[in-house]
Amino acid sequence: MDITFKEAASLYKKNPERARLIDVREVDEYQEGHLPKADLCPLSQLVSLTAQGAFKDQDLLLLYCRSGARSGRACEFLRKKGFKEVYNCGGVLDYQGEFGPLEK
Question: Domain 5-94: which CATH class?
Answer without folding.
Answer: alpha beta
